[in-house]
Amino acid sequence: MDRISELPEDILHRILYFLSQEDAVRTSVLSKSWRYIWRTRPNLDFSDNTKYYKGGKKKQEFLSVVNTTLQGYCDQRLCVDEFRLRISSGDYSDHEFVSLLDKWIPLLTATTMGVKEFQLSILSKNSVRGIVHLPVVLKAEPLKLLWLYDCSLGQNIPENIPFVRLQVLRLQSVSIEQQIFDKIISSCPLLTDMWLQKCGGLKTIALEKKLHRYLKHVSFVSHEMTRDESIVEIDDDVVPTLETIHIKGCKIRFRNVKFGSLKSLYLSVVEISTDNSVEQSQQPCIDAPDLKYFKYTGSFIPSVSFVPTCMKSNLQLYMRGRDGQPWFLRLSQLLRALRRSEISLTVVRFSRDELQIEEEILVHDTINNGGGNYKPVVVEHLTLHIRHLSSYLYVLNVLFCICRPRNINPSWFSQRNGNKEKVLKELGECLRKIEKMRESGGNREMWRDLEDITIQGSDESRRKWKRLQVANLSGSGFSNFRVRLQWSDISRL
Fold first, then answer.
1. What pTM value is reported for the model?
2. Which residue of 12, 123, 131, 394 sits 20 to 30 Å from the alpha carbon of 225, by its own alpha carbon?
3. 355: DSSP letter
């Protein structure tokens, strides 16, 4: 006997709640009691990114299914507790697609249907025909998640944007007026996730504790056309709930801020700004005691204050100009601040200008900045993108003054024309020159601390590395190589 079919309607609705829309419809063949139950369940979940709706005709059918289903709920005066719509607008005509939203968003948000949770994901593919305009989206009060791609929110600034339930905001390649965005942000007291990428018209992101007390995740990538004008402003009394920050290609206005809950921080190609001017000499102090992952890309070297128990740091730093003395000194300070983490360091220098560095002064200043008891910091992976082997070895020699790399990844010649024999020849030459530098190092302490240098090879998986002889590199069959260094003074502070 089928006892499940005899359960009350609210229990059957609860069972259907956990099924996709297609699977819910399939239950209509189970028995008479299941035949129409799917038409009254309180949650609707539509997506045209399924196997059933692949192809032109099926795509057109999707809009009809959504419209017919919602009309049935409206006619029966049924409430929809949760409504999710994921749609790729480029597969339909603008008129069909926009008309559907214009019709149903006001009805879904009205008391008639009473949607409590509304999730809308629109991925437009209209780069050829032009951007789809969707200002009606700003009227959807029950929105909990909003994800828009390659569309426009219009130019008319509404008096009110009722996003009082919105928790996740994801805008990619969306045309939006700055004033509209400011209104959206000030209308989202429950916002937890904000993901903004290459949005035309958007220049300023201001994070304030009084507006964003629940904000956990922030990602902002500036638009190419407004990169020089884009800025992210972070109050000194910053949002205490922030856990991840990803900012790329803009100015950042903050100084001496403390991120009490921050777990992941990624800053790429940013300019540090204080007040209304960019100050290259005044680096900000980033205090994040619980940080687990730090990634930084740029020519500025920030000052940080991290006290992690288990953390990874990934640094990609661009070295410009000829005066490398202050640059390397700031690098040594940054490495020291990150000394308890597993550090991956990439140094990029494309300039042909000869660097001016007094190594003895650099070592002296580094020791003084370390309180007189400075020990070089362990760098797990070191990569140098430098054009010439002579410059490569010179920079490497300077780096040995302030850090102890365990592995050197020889990608400095990875941009060559794919001549493996030439690559391996230069790798062997590099190893021999490092050996020669060690032998002629005299009393310099860092060379005495270098106990062993080897070349290791690995397959594509890079799971196991095998020690190789220079003479046997070409016949090793490996595709990846690295220089492995063993130091006697390695110690994590």
1. 0.79
2. 123
3. P
